Amino acid sequence: MRAEKLAMMANQIGAFFKAQGEAQAPAAIADHLKKFWDPGMRRDIVAHADAGGAGLDPLVKRAVELLKAQP
């Protein structure tokens, strides 16, 4: 899937969880991505973030870093 599309989708998820606050939202976003995105999508969003994460909301960038650190 194209990085721009994944970034848009991840940002939509981030917007939903933003109400949880900056301390809790990244973990909630990462959990959602882990539960509902297939491994290829997760791999691609991590690669996009590693390449600079153009277009990703800062909370989503932190979430992807958390996702990357999970087994």
Keywords:
71 residues; mainly alpha; 72% helix; globular
Q: What does this protein structure show overall?
A:
The chain is mainly alpha-helical and about 70 residues long. The chain has 4 helices and no strands. It has one domain. Helices cover about 70% and strands about 0% of the residues. It is globular. The mean pLDDT is about 95.
Estimated share of beta-strand residues: under 5%
Report the mean per-residue pLDDT as an integer.
96
How does the overall form come out from the CA principal axes? globular
The Rg value, from CA coordinates, equals 11 Å
Write the layout of secondary structure elements.
Elements (H helix, E strand, L loop, with lengths): L2 H15 L7 H12 L2 H12 L7 H12 L2
Helix pairs in contact: 1-2, 1-3, 2-4, 3-4
